[in-house]
Design goal:
This protein is of the alpha/beta class. The protein has a single domain, classed as Spore Coat Polysaccharide Biosynthesis Protein SpsA, Chain A, CATH 3.90.550. It contains eight helices and seven strands. Helix 2 links the parallel strand 2 and strand 3. The protein is globular, with a radius of gyration of 16 Å. The termini are far apart.
């Protein structure tokens, strides 16, 4: 089974505010873009992924992620993360009615294509399934098989909310790169320890230089 991934990305100037103790206002947008570039590149390299649709209104992100091969949709609802995901999934299903769809966070800079494939292959066994984040509170991936609505409930305590919605929680070993999203400085250090992609590595180097 091959999946279409929907990846939401808020305007870079407003992204990653919780990294304020780690990166300056001028560096956070470039970090957010780097996270998304590494996420999209790894997703497109995954054999279980047919294509990637990014939902964003950011012009720079649109240009850079399109260059990697992602399709980009404007965030027409403009009502936050879940509305953007519902919109993106609906657009995908209009073009490909029977395709399985998965929502994936844009801040997975250590993402490994092989680990993502394991998660998607496991998700294919259920009508809807999700993967909790490394903190065990949130969600990094929510999958809906053919004919199933995505019904995203991202945000505070999304692990509990996706579980309550009837989605099956995936319990998998050795998929840390798919679980390690980056919201805080501690998250970034954990991702760096796993080994991040080239864009985040370059942005991280600029961060270290700026901190000297």
């Amino acid at each position: 089974m091959q999946w279409t991934l929907v990846i939401p990305l808020k305007p870079l100037a407003r992204a990653k505010s919780r990294l304020a103790d780690t990166a300056s206002d001028t560096l956070r947008p470039s970090l957010a873009l780097a996270f998304a570039q590494d996420t999209v590149a790894a997703a497109l390299a995954c054999p279980a992924v047919r294509d990637v649709a990014v939902v964003t209104d950011d012009a720079l992100a649109t240009r850079e992620l399109s260059a990697l091969g992602a399709g980009v949709l404007p965030d027409e609802p403009g009502r936050g993360l879940n509305a953007a995901l519902e919109f993106g999934a609906a657009k995908v299903r209009t073009a490909l009615p029977n395709t399985p769809v998965a929502a994936l966070n844009a801040d997975l800079p250590a993402l490994r294509p092989t680990e993502l494939a394991r998660v998607l292959d496991a998700a294919a066994q259920f009508p809807r399934a999700f993967l909790p984040d490394a903190a065990g509170v949130g969600t990094t991936l929510l999958a809906a098989g053919p004919g199933m609505e995505l019904r995203p409930a991202f945000g505070t305590d999304s692990r509990a909310r996706h579980h309550a919605s009837g989605a099956r929680e995936l319990v998998l070993d050795t998929v840390d790169s798919v679980r390690q999203d980056v919201d805080t400085g501690a998250d970034l250090r954990a991702a760096l320890a796993l080994g991040v992609g080239p864009w985040t590595a370059a942005a991280g180097a600029r961060l270290l230089i700026a901190g000297q």
